[in-house]
Design a protein that fits this description.
Aldehyde Dehydrogenase, Chain A, domain 1, Aldehyde Dehydrogenase, Chain A, domain 2, 2 domains, 34% helix, 20% strand
Length: 560
């Protein structure tokens, strides 16, 4: 039975004009769809005749960003059945015994766009049991079969990428271009891990004992708990679920209460791709968040926990997992330094800083938080950056020309405002921005002459504020950049080849971007050091995180 959809007034949608789409680069499979499926929540998918969309980029640009909203289709999806307001346990879309729900809001308007069941520890135990039961058979599927599931999921995902993008804008608030870029990025993980399913190789190891042969085999670790954040509703579940499916693990996904719908739609597409019941289970919760998290970390049937979020929560989860010595992947907070040396190419440095700092309105763990600029280029860089940032347009993500949407909620906007006011009170100058917009909007900001004593120097802002610090020498800036308890990502810009290697090796971070502000890819090992966590996501290293390596030592028959 399809989940009931709340009737919500959408006054902001009843406009007389239809805006145009500024389309970011997309893959060909996002443009041309070869087939389409229909699906009832109470049945498995059936293939219907192919419906081919236009392959002409120009015609796609004529599509409206604003979805066509109706009472029956309140988010204006091409496939309304992808709006799912239930949890998933053992292949069934379910609520919770109490009937309690929580609301999901559009950050741009504050209006309710739907609800989800406020599921409990009891529901979580049922989901874990279902995953444990499914593991007994899913672990025996062939790599080729798991590759086929992921390849079909990737195909269906790209066929529905506009709906995924709409869901991201609705519940996260990103601009259309930003959301579409994330949707394409997320899709790349399904493609990558489909291939990784065929690369779970063991090895043969020479033995010093005559007549004995050593081999290793790779096996899935078991039931995994996937705790995903709100800032990348599509990419984070793709980065965690992809390797789990590829190697034969089953999972319980805990979605964020702010952005559950994107994950639920992706999981629905996985079901349509043929992934068996019980392999993926989803818990939606708000009020019971801490209790659900504790159950996932302490239940002995769960063998791994993957979490993306704050360092504070990551430490708490690690403590809870210690009782059963669960394997963990923790991608935690960052306070990323970005360094611009005098010998940097100015346009490259400005473009790279914007890419790193302002993606997702600054709400990413790898955003540049402390921007160190050398004296000789400081004034030119500050002026050029402020000029570019001043051209940004903030507003609802579906509006034409909007480059940056609102922040996720009021608490985040309050924190950004606190950081800016603190910096200004200690001598920083506002070059552009420095004020709030409507609702949870914060105008993209550039601060100059920021002192090391301000909050931005030691705390992750998680907002659209570029704080510029001066420095004189390479040795000085390396020491200041490394003066942090966290170490997720770092960036620098220089045309000196020797310096590129020297600084890359000196920065105490898990990832470094040299002359680029964009480091995230499906093929790389994403992760940090120090209190930014441990474990990797993406690349072949991300596949290894979901497997165990088992030694098999084979002896020979003893000759009489």
């Amino acid at each position: 039975m399809p989940s009931k959809i709340s009737s919500v007034p959408f006054t902001r949608l009843s406009r007389s004009h239809i805006t145009r789409q500024n389309l970011v680069r997309s893959t060909p499979s996002a443009i041309a769809l070869t087939s389409q499926r229909t699906f009832s929540h109470s049945s498995r998918p059936t293939i219907i005749p192919s419906v081919r969309l236009s392959q002409n980029i120009a015609s796609i640009r004529n599509m409206s960003n604003w979805p066509k909203v109706t009472a029956e289709n309140p988010l204006g999806l091409d496939d309304p059945s992808l709006l799912i307001q239930r949890g998933l346990i053992d292949g069934k879309w379910v609520g919770t015994e109490s009937g309690e729900t929580f609301e999901v809001n559009d950050p741009a308007s504050g209006k309710v766009i739907g609800t989800c069941p406020d599921q409990t520890v009891s529901d979580t135990k049922n989901a874990i049991d279902a995953a444990h039961k499914a593991f007994s058979t899913y672990k025996t599927t062939s790599p080729a079969q798991r590759q086929a599931y992921l390849a079909e999921l990737h195909r269906l995902y790209m066929a529905n990428i506009n709906d995924i993008t709409r869901l991201i804008v609705w519940e996260n608030g990103k601009s259309w271009n930003d959301a579409l870029a994330e949707a394409n990025y997320a899709g790349s993980f399904f493609s990558w891990f489909a291939a990784e399913a065929l690369r779970t190789n063991g090895e043969t190891i020479p033995c010093s004992v005559p007549g004995t042969r050593n081999i290793t085999i790779k096996q899935p670790i078991g039931v995994v708990a996937l705790l995903v954040p709100w800032n990348f509703p599509a990419a984070m579940i793709a980065r965690k679920l992809g390797p789990a499916l590829a190697v034969g693990c089953t999972s319980v996904v805990k979605v964020p209460s702010e952005t559950p719908f994107t994950t639920l739609a992706i999981v629905e597409l996985a079901r349509r791709a043929g992934v068996p019941d019980g392999v993926i289970n989803v818990i939606t919760t708000d009020k019971h968040l801490q209790d659900v998290g504790k159950e996932l970390c302490t239940n002995p049937l769960v063998h791994k926990v993957s979490f993306t979020g704050s360092t504070r929560v990551g430490k708490l989860l690690a403590e809870q997992c210690s009782g059963t010595l669960k394997k963990m992947s923790l991608e935690l907070g960052g306070n990323a330094p970005l360094i611009v040396f005098d010998d940097a190419d100015l346009p490259t440095a400005v473009a790279g800083t914007i890419a790193s700092k302002f993606r997702g309105s600054g709400q990413t763990c790898v955003c540049a938080n402390r921007i160190y600029v050398q004296d000789g280029i400081y004034d030119k860089f500050a002026q050029a950056l402020a000029e570019k940032v001043g051209q940004f347009k903030v507003g609802p993500g579906f509006d034409e020309g909007v480059t940056h949407g609102p922040l996720i909620h009021q608490r985040q906007a309050d924190k950004v405002e606190e950081h800016v006011q603190d910096a200004v009170s200690k001598g920083a100058k506002i070059l552009v921005g420095g004020k709030r917009g409507k609702g949870t909007e914060y105008i993209p900001t550039v601060l100059a002459d920021v002192p090391d004593s301000c909050l931005i120097a030691t705390e992750e802002t998680f907002g659209p504020v570029a704080a510029l610090f001066r420095f004189k020498t390479e040795e000085e800036v390396i020491a200041r950049a490394n003066n942090s308890e966290v170490g997720l990502a770092g960036y620098f810009f220089s045309e000196d080849v020797d310096r590129v290697f020297r600084v890359s090796e000196a920065l105490e971070t898990g990832m470094v971007g040299a002359n680029t502000g964009m480091i995230s890819q499906a093929v790389i090992p994403f992760g940090g050091i120090k209190e930014s966590g441990y474990g990797k996501e993406g690349g072949h290293q991300g596949t290894e995180e979901y497997m165990i390596t088992k030694l098999v030592a084979i002896g020979s028959r003893i000759k009489q």
